[in-house]
Amino acid sequence: MALHHHAIQTSITWATYEFEVLNMDGMWKDVGGVYIFSGVKDNIWRAYYIGITDSFQDRHPNHERWEEAKRLGATHVHARGESQAATRESIERELIGTYQPPLNTHHK
User: Fold this and answer.
1) For residues 11, 14, 18 and 41, what is the CA-based torsion angle, rounded to 10 degrees?
2) Are 10 and 21 contacting, i.e. CB atoms less than 8 angstroms apart?
3) In this structure, what is the dihedral angle of CA atoms 29, 3, 16, 103, given to the nearest 10 degrees?
4) Helical (H) or strand (E) element with 97
5) Residue 29 and residue 70: Cα distance in Å, rounded?
6) Domains in the chain with CATH codes
7) pTM, entire model
8) What count of other Cβ atoms lies within 10 Å of the Cβ of residue 65?
9) How many CB atoms lie within 10 A of CB 15?
10) Long-range pairs for 57-66 at CB < 8 Å and ≥24 separation?
11) DSSP 27
């Protein structure tokens, strides 16, 4: 399911979850999911912030952590549509625990 109209690279897998690789600009869809503010450093995607939303359309592109993430090196949003709130929360908790993004303070 396309979450956004300007995909760059098709997808990437974090842990066992597939995410679309997107830029912050463009039209976001009104669906819930998990997202990662990320950028490539030393030829590896790095997670700077991981979050969940009930609606990508409402949450992006005016996210309060985006500028901070960009200063650290974020260039893209990796997004995964997930309709169930409990599943979003479970994935978020697992990914934060695994990747320890610097802008997340919860679930570490």
Assistant:
1) -10
2) yes
3) -60
4) helix 85-99
5) 22
6) 7-99 (3.40.1440.10)
7) 0.87
8) 15
9) 10
10) 57/27, 57/28, 57/29, 57/30, 57/31, 58/30, 59/28, 59/35, 60/24, 60/28, 60/35, 61/24, 61/25, 61/28, 63/37, 65/37, 65/103, 66/24, 66/37
11) P
Give pLDDT tens digits along the chain (108 positions): 455 444 445 788 999 999 998 887 777 888 999 999 999 998 899 999 999 999 988 876 677 899 999 999 999 999 999 999 999 999 999 999 999 999 998 766
Residue type, 39: G
Token pair for 13: 């897998």
